[in-house]
Amino acid sequence: MAEKAYVFIETELGKTKQVAEAIRNYEGVVSVDVVTGPYDAIAIVEGATVADIGVLLTDTVHRISGISRTVTCIAIKG
Asked: Helices in 1-78 by DSSP H: which ranges?
């Protein structure tokens, strides 16, 4: 089974839709929802390992223009 993480995303003013569309284009991204509250979008990502999720985030998601901050929560199996 793949590892899964929730990525809570804060964007620069007026950039939320652009950021969400950009994130959807990456392999490993299961879904992206624009939300209300302290974050502007929440993405669900998957990878074969936690390290793969880290590579996805650092090499792709964190480089998207318009993202000001992310918080990633790795899902655990309970």
From this structure: 16-24, 50-59
